[in-house]
Known about the structure:
The protein is of the alpha/beta class. 42% of the residues lie in helices and 11% in strands.
Amino acid sequence: MEIKKANLSWRRALTPLKRVEKIFQHHPAHPSWGVQEIHDDHQNRLGWNGGGYTHFIYRNGDIYEMRGEHQGAHVGRDNWNERSLGICYQGYLHNDSTGNTTEMTNEQVKSGAWLNAKLIKDYDLTVDDIAGHGEVSATACPGNLFRMDELKAQAKQLLKSEGKEQDDTIHRVQIGAYSKWENAANTAEDAQDKGYDAYIGTRRDYYVVQIGAFGELKNATALADQAEGDGYEIYISSQALGPAEQPEEKDADPEPPEEEQEQEKEEEKEEKEKTPITGRAKATYRQAQKWAKNRGAHRRFIEIAELYWGYGEQMGIRPEVLYAQAAKETAFGNYTGVVPPTHNNWAGIKIREGGPNNDPDAHEKFDTPEEGVRAHFNHICAYVGKEPIGEPHGRYKTVMVTAWAGTIKYVEELGARWAPASGYGESIINDYLNDLLDTPEPEEEEIEEETSKNLVEAIIEAMKNLIELLKKFIKKEEH
Ligand SMILES: [Zn+2]
């Protein structure tokens, strides 16, 4: 089987995918459209860069590449487009009264299984990472006639039989493991320049750079020797591909003892119910900006989002949590309370000595909007026990001497601490954060439109100011 090129023309260059965590299955909900019709529809009617899927499978089983291993536009939620592939199967695979219904063909199931199995191998995934679009979004896609169980069973069979041929073990040659994507990308690029077929694999919380995978250990060793000669620190990871669905890598941590597992489960349960403050972002700043805009935010609040995400990543604090809090504290940057916008105080932070809530001078003034963001992050550091960045503001020290300093883990715990109201944390979650997280990632095209709209708005504002100025000038001349 092979993947054919579709030769589509895009409005601009496609963005390579940085990682792949899932493979979504779709149908176009049209009985006869093929690659070109879908591409035209997405480009002309929707105004996108072009067809949103990464691959397409015709009723006869032919497989085509659309965006290929580039960022698609097929699952808007939770920035899935940045971290998944989307295979579309020709037809209207949903049984309803529209009269458009078509069956999924045997050829489509077979090709779909082959393609998914191939991508699973390429990206170190498992059969469980094959998902229907409707599993993460409120949609009937890929339709109730999509033969998911059969497709998964066939993909599993393919992976298993290949594993058998290779003595049930696959030996991967790695030349590095990194917590940061950029570092992995640098090594991969360097290796590619030296002629290696390097690619990046995603593990649970780090990235590995691999230059090959072999059924026979001696082949892996040969390549490893060569890479070692080129100055790389090499590592061979051998993974069983036996009947077990999700084989553990031999280099993975040993299973923790049962008691610890129990405790972990308890903690996991707790995590699920509560909202952690620290950790990686669960939303992008684009999503946050769209949400802020929907909620009538001031432009200064929309513009500050990117900085929140920058500090969040740097400090291991969820930026969307703090951004939601800032929305609550400043009424989306409209500053309807006592603190004026010139204070650049995004989080209602008081001066060291404190003072009444209705006294603007009892609140900290920061030199720039960014200084206000840094202080917001530093302030939360005193709560969660992280190191601040740069010299912290006065109030930070007031928090540091409380009994609970450094012990706060969840947004729910901010009540009666950050603010007097006991439901303060819940309000951040229910009135702000949940809505932010539910806001779909804007399409690339949407963002561009937004940017040009902002530019036009800025020009209009500047012209208005100019006209006002001219009016004054003209009046003066008259006198
Ligand atoms: Zn879909």
